[in-house]
Amino acid sequence: DGGITQSPKYLFRKEGQNVTLSCEQNLNHDAMYWYRQDPGQGLRLIYYSQIVNDFQKGDIAEGYSVSREKKESFPLTVTSAQKNPTAFYLCASSPGQGDTQYFGPGTRLTVL
Amino acid sequence: EDQVTQSPEALRLQEGESSSLNCSYTVSGLRGLFWYRQDPGKGPEFLFTLYSAGEEKEKERLKATLTKKESFLHITAPKPEDSATYLCAVQAARAAGNKLTFGGGTRVLVKP
């Protein structure tokens, strides 16, 4: 079955630690995205990548980093510089520019 | 700056009681308006894309319409399984990275 997988589903982090969230897709999509969702707020774009080995900052990139070494994978690292990392993180992909974005199941990150 | 406002924030319906959700938007050149459904703790599920004023799309009990300033999601004779948060998002014609700007969502609860 084609789709987007995210792991882990739940993640707990101590203050000062970096953590990496996994996102994999087998849809052969070129573009991939990371969004953050907070209660009562709309999804906000963190980073996006339109092609392998290239990525761009979104609206709230501070404290986050990404890589795009393979077409199928777009991991997100939440660094200790992110002041309020507790949130629901969503990965999405689309076939190309302007196409519909399809979302993964999400990772809930909690900072202890 | 692109903006999306959804109303109401929450909607309680009796099974079979039809209603409409509103998505008002301002965008510098609309490429597309997207509707998603999100169940608690899960990623958004794509429903519809609308591209131009006057366009309508239907799927089971859901019908989405678009004007130059807003979109409506009509739920006809809803069932309890239609309970979810419905998200609206716009994509500007010149959006860097095909960015989606999301509204805060409408939480719909359908009681049997």
What would your notes on this structure say?
The complex is a heterodimer of chains A (112) and B (112). With 112 residues, chain A is mostly beta strands. Helix content of chain A is 0%, strand content 49%. In chain A, the strands form 2 sheets. In chain A, strands 2, 4, 5, 6, 9, 10 and 11 form a 7-stranded mixed sheet that branches. In chain A, a hairpin with a 7-residue loop joins strand 9 and strand 10. Chain B is mostly beta strands and 112 residues long. Chain B has strands at residues 3-7, 10-14, 19-26, 30-38, 45-50, 56-59, 62-66, 70-75, 84-92, 101-102, 106-111. Chain B is built from no helices and 11 strands. In chain B, strands 2, 4, 5, 9, 10 and 11 form a 6-stranded mixed sheet that branches. Chain B has a 5-stranded antiparallel sheet with strand order 1-3-8-7-6, with no helix packed on it. Chain B is 0% helix and 58% strand.
